Amino acid sequence: MATPGRFFCADAARARGDVLAGTAPYGSIWVLIEHRGSWPANGFDGLDLEPVTKARVYTAAVALRARILLIRRHGRRRTDAPRRWAVLHGERDGSHRQHWGSWTRDEDLTAVADALHTDACGETGLPPVLLVCAHGVHDTCCAVRGRPVGRALSERWPDLVWECTHVGGDRFAANVLVAPDGTYYGNLDADTAPATVEAHLADRVHPAHLRGYTDLAPAQQSAVSAVLHRAGPAGRYAYAVTKTVRDRENDRWFVRVTGLAPGLGVYDVEVRSHRSPPLQLTCNGRSRSTTLTYEVTAVHSV
Q: Which domains does the chain show, CATH number per domain?
């Protein structure tokens, strides 16, 4: 996929062997706003919306650490139907909530702020939302790698799949976020994405493309991934992190991962972190940055 003379961050990350596990950003609430036109590089922040409405939505989202993503169906299909919005809540017990609405005028989006302010708002038991980052204006790899994945998944699950703006981790494109359970997958392509998602929908998380669960800290994400590699794929809530001890002096964590279903074990996992040398981590950002990598050094069955 590489083009001679042009830098692609996802190609560079694969060549370096960048570690996926432990890279999912924190999140338990997502705001989705359908926008069928061009997406600004900074997503929702760059939309030309009615100022008071936009400020209400932004303030309500910030208060709850909710992430706002613009969404659209693959292919930018023309339709006269009202645009949709959603507030997705990920719950630790797996009883996720989704609140969906529609908008035609900017002012209609005040309902998003109202939904964020309402406790226990939304329906439970709905199928998950599959979000494929295809934000090419933000990062080239998100478009080059994300759009083929968006097409492949949309052909299988047209009602579940949306392309979305930046979800983080451009160098791991194509990225898929399953919400509201908060599972990040990366390094996907049109061949691997359908099988990965099919397994997830059957409640079998495979670790090969797993970046992590958004309700866990990076070291905990790495520990769970290591257990899945050792013990085999398992459901999204089949394991829980029941203890975490940090050794700050040695940049080390001791994480206990406990199986919650019959037949699953208990594991103590040692994780170390180290900082990378300065790297170009995105296609469009020419500056070099360091990043923390989490390495599992031991897994012990308890």
A: 1-216 (3.40.30.10)
